[in-house]
Amino acid sequence: MFGVSADYRAAVRDWLAQQDVPSLVSRGMYASTVYGWAVLDGGITEIHRYGWASLPSEVRVVGWQTLRLLIDQLVLMGPTRVLPGEVFIATAELRRRHAGQAARDEAAQRRAELLASCVDGTTMRAGTWRPPRRSTSAGTS
Questions:
Q1: Is the C or the N end of the chain the one with fewer CB within 10 Å?
Q2: CB-based contact 48:57 (threshold 8 Å)
Q3: pTM of the complete model
């Protein structure tokens, strides 16, 4: 999870307004308003805090691929090497994936719903959780 500097929040919002990605807003009486946009491996969320929500009001980027795509699209200076825990994917491939139909499929819609429900650090991290892949060992039957 990466916080977006106040200097860049408007640019992120403008970029999101031009994207065809699943999004959702969660509002409730006496509760924080949370916006969620599904982008690649995670998404972007904006929280307008109300009451005792544990996360402050701000814009956050969830997911390595989302972060790298956003850096590319906004023409920002980003890390020049792979960060700990990140799997390298070329920028051109991230753009292709973002433009593809999978960016708007049912799983992406569920991710937007999940991101729009995130009001604390635990639920925010769950926005990018995926079950582990089954190993296909050659020696098993």
A1: C
A2: yes
A3: 0.76
